Amino acid sequence: MKIPTTTDIPQRYTWCLAGICYSSLAILPSFLSYAESYFNPAFLLENGTSVADLSRFERGNHQPAGVYRVDLWRNDEFIGSQDIVFESTTENTGDKSGGLMPCFNQVFLERIGLNSSAFPELAQQQNNKCINLLKAVPDATINFDFAAMRLNITIPQIALLSSAHGYIPPEEWDEGIPALLLNYNFTGNRGNGNDSYFFSELSGINIGPWRLRNNGSWNYFRGNGYHSEQWNNIGTWVQRAIIPLKSELVMGDGNTGSDIFDGVGFRGVRLYSSDNMYPDSQQGFAPTVRGIARTAAQLTIRQNGFIIYQSYVSPGAFEITDLHPTSSNGDLDVTIDERDGNQQNYTIPYSTVPILQREGRFKFDLTAGDFRSGNSQQSSPFFFQGTALGGLPQEFTAYGGTQLSANYTAFLLGLGRNLGNWGAVSLDVTHARSQLADDSRHEGDSIRFLYAKSMNTFGTNFQLMGYRYSTQGFYTLDDVAYRRMEGYEYDYDYDGEHRDEPIIVNYHNLRFSRKDRLQLNISQSLNDFGSLYISGTHQKYWNTSDSDTWYQVGYTSSWVGISYSLLFSWNESVGIPDNERIVGLNVSVPFNVLTKRRYTRENALDRAYASFNANRNSNGQNSWLAGVGGTLLEGHNLSYHVSQGDTSNNGYTGSATANWQAAYGTLGVGYNYDRDQHDVNWQLSGGVVGHKNGITLSQPLGDTNVLIKAPGAGGVRIENQTGILTDWRGYAVMPYATVYRYNRIALG
């Protein structure tokens, strides 16, 4: 029998037992020198019947064989939680393995990437036979932590299949559970007798591989002598994956692909290759919308005529990084409505970088349906669009496409190439024939050049730099859809009458066809001295000297934790009379740089900061604002900011805002005031998931979401998720999971 150590028994018995042990050793040295301790298992039964084999417990730290659910890691990459069969072993599988060896069959090893054909003996094994990985694959290792239920295996790279990093085989994909989904966002503003509200929703049903979605918005305004209310159905569609084609099928409302032609809205059918189904595919990017608000302002962003984002921003520079455009292409029209009545308008070019395909890969995109736009000045002609890209040897990519409609025909051919250290480029030519609203016919060509490059040595990143030149007779499908040659779009009031104020960002004049356009997005790292960035576009037109120009130049840096930035913005547009240039300065000083606990963020004071911003526009209007902000609560999910300042128009001004990122949604409230007016604004957003076990409320949903079920574990945090807790039943929703990839989720 094994003698227990002093840590196995209470402390008060230690000295007594030690005395007994020493006496035994003195009396019976010969017995202890030649015999092992042994416990007869027959003592457990009275009738002398046989008992289970308990010999493995005599060696200590040994666990029974069987099936265990473990977190499986291969070459430091998380594969997922798996039920693995373990057998007892004397081989080295780690100090904490409990004497267990995982039992893998050939099918499982191939599923996690092992190239079984490279090992003849392994290839001859039966699929259901237990394989010892240490013997089958030279230099493979196994490390099992029984207490943590974590299994780490390493397989030499030469023994793995030549699939891309992160590849998940289709048989591992999960279509998800049947569910009802609702994503909502509600903002409101009340002050000085004016009320305005904006509500947007994205609802849907998931049944097997099918996804039904509806996206809509509601605008309401009362004040200044009129009343307007409007519901916009942005889109309704059914979507599903076509796995054999690695593609997605969309029926209903959507947007065309933008790899080749500019994206446009449609109501019809689209079948396109899905990059998400490919490993290491280019996922594209969502643009960052930057700007300067002189006062507390309402920010509105439109794409293809639809409002896709609306919120309230504090005075000073702002960045919108959580934007989710309805299309991967289509310029973003930004409107900033200041409290003093001024309005800023500018357009941010938004298109993908040159998309190069691996050799042998083919990508297609087919769309047929009616043209669809949120602009009431446009009609809905039927059209067909087809595009294709193919990867060629020597890192070339050939691509082409066509757009066909009753009054429009366009053909495009292009070639792209990876230049290695010199970046990536693409060049294409489009020939188009058009019939416009006045029945005039035109024919022209357009040449487009795109370039992208990241020079890590110099810290320079050309995210996108492009140039397009078009002859005088060149028009796009979007141009042909206009009902009139020139005009604005107007809002409608409650009685259906035109308002006096047009939506000036939707101005068009087909007599001024596009001539040449330069766009760029460049950032430059200065190492310890911060970074510079410049974004902008310059569009010229035929038959006029006017042009659209929008540029932003910024500098950001920090010193001993104090961050500061300088931003210059310049925008002017054809048809928009009030062009503006504005320069702004922003400084943020964390309180913890003034304490001995620098950068620790241990309490609310350490997480607080002081801020200052000042700006001046081309009309000589100045404003400045100083404030204090920070985060509260244990999860740091309540943020606040209070400020006071002065403007040259309205004198003193101030604001107070708070945002709470809760388990069941997010809530933001704000109060703004100046010499002439005051108002209150709020924002409420969240998600609702209906499933077979009930309804679960959540933070705003993403495209891919995970329902977490942990009965009896109410109020438990989800690891690495801000503000997300299980509800009283043990349910929670984790939004923004990665589609067609393993997602690791753990309770905190």
Automatic annotation (TrEMBL):
Highest taxon of source: Bacteria
Per the database record, which ranges form the PapC N-terminal domain? 38-187
Give the transmembrane region(s): 12-32
Its record classes its membrane topology as:
Multi-pass membrane protein
Which Gene3D superfamilies does the record cross-reference, listed alphabetically?
2.60.40.3110, 3.10.20.410, Outer membrane usher protein FimD, plug domain (2.60.40.2610)
The entry's keywords? Cell outer membrane, Fimbrium biogenesis, Membrane, Signal, Transmembrane, Transmembrane beta strand, Transmembrane helix, Transport
* Compartments (UniProt record): Cell outer membrane
GO terms of biological process kind = pilus assembly
Which SUPFAM superfamilies does the entry link to? FimD N-terminal domain-like
- Record flagged with keyword Signal: yes
Pfam families noted in UniProt = PapC_N, Usher
Task: Give the UniProt entry's GO cellular component terms.
Answer: cell outer membrane
Main subcellular location of this protein, as a coarse class: membrane
The record's section on PROSITE patterns has: FIMBRIAL_USHER
Give the Gene Ontology MF terms in alphabetical order. Answer: fimbrial usher porin activity
**What InterPro entries has UniProt attached to this entry?**
Fimb_usher, Fimbrial_membr_usher_CS, FimD_plug_dom, PapC_N, PapC_N_sf
Q: Spell out the NCBIfam families in the cross-references.
A: PRK15198.1
What family does the Swiss-Prot or TrEMBL record give for this protein? Belongs to the fimbrial export usher family.
- Name-wise, this protein is Type VII secretion system (T7SS), usher family protein
Question: Organism source for this protein?
Answer: Escherichia coli 1-250-04_S3_C1
